[in-house]
User: What shape does this take?
Amino acid sequence: MELTNQPMLIWFVIGYGIFMLLLGVYYSKKINTSDDFILAGKSLGPIVLMGTLLATWVGSGSVTGGQNSMAYSFGIWPALMSTIPSLLGILTIFLISSKIKHYGKHTVAEILEIKYGRWSSLLAAIIIILAFVGIVSYQFQGLGFILSVSTGISPGTGTIIGAAIIIFLACIGGLMSVAPTDAVSAFLVIIGLVVAVPIAISVGGGWDQIIANVPDSHTSFTGGLSFLQLMGYYLPTLFLLLGDQNIYQRITASNNDKTTKRGTAGWIIGLIIATPTISLLAFISRSLFPDIDPGMAVIALTSVLPIAVGGILIAALTAFIVTTGNSYLLSAATSVIYDFFAKYIKRDINDHQKLVYTRVLIPVLGVIAFLLTMYFPTVLAVQMYAYTVYGAGITPALLAVFLFPQVTKSAGLSSMVTGLIVTLFWEFFYVESTGINSVIVSVPVAIIVLIIVTLFTHNKNSSRKEGTE
Assistant: This one.
């Protein structure tokens, strides 16, 4: 089947876009301080918290990369299994959520600084920028795909327009407006996905016909991938989630510990519904559209569904992509202002200036993210890079703060530096030649360094204390 644009779909995208804009403007009027902009005044209730956690995590990374691209490129089983790392990550976050909220910090770098000192904060800010700008870049691409399917413009032109929309919405309201729109988007997307599945199966000619139209490898358990290749896709997801600053900020923004637990539990339920459904839809799309960009799989399916169903689904996908782009742009800008600018350039910065500078910086980072779209060949490629930079550079040291109290300052810093350097070195020199994602090397090395340096320096520090006594 040939992919053709469906002009009627654009009205669903525009309609929901206007709704999001009005909601964002309404909540932006409640912003008086930088805490309101970045942490929503620590006022999020359980429903909004659940929705914003789900919408932040299941963004373009899932509907154009992640489960979507894996189901299209490798088959249904690898995509379905990719939900497991996210569930493991969320369960871990659930267990330490009270500790995260207790810290009450704007950025994970501020948490790291308490344990490892100022240099860890600066290094974390650099890693966050490298990772989050990459994540934002494929949100631009995802919205570009949607505009291409619904209007007929090229994906490149759509990406430019998508970038402008996401940057603008990120600037106006911060988390105060992003969180409520996230919640609405989360419920809409779950409805759209669930309704779309049986209809898509019917459009595809039934499940037997769908299976007959895909390569044999797409119905195998591994999709033709080796164990190392599968882990190369799964581990970046797990290690980004375990330390994702966006998630930590949302937990901090909840109004109490009880809300945090309820919101996180709801997030698990939403994920169990959303991500397998995305996998099924992308797999069906592979049967119908064998020659499209993998990142367009679920989005392309909207063009052959009944207009009402396709419209609801494409509006929901638009919402997830936009809100995820907003969140990561805001989070990256927050790190620059709080962890670098306010500490090293303008130490006397006041609260109003933090708010203004954060809003000014968002478009700058947005432009850098757009330029990054030209470097990586696919959404899945940039997704794995961004997740691994963060997962290897920050997550082991960050989790140690909560789970490994014996960790030392030297160990945390060594782990962060090692994770970042090994990831970048592998990405630039070995990914193409080996076909193995950098996470297979960089995360284990970062963890090993963390443990070994802790054992060495902890024993050394203990010996020094005994000597002075």
Notes: The CA atoms of residues 139 and 195 lie 24 Å apart. The chain has a mean pLDDT of 85.
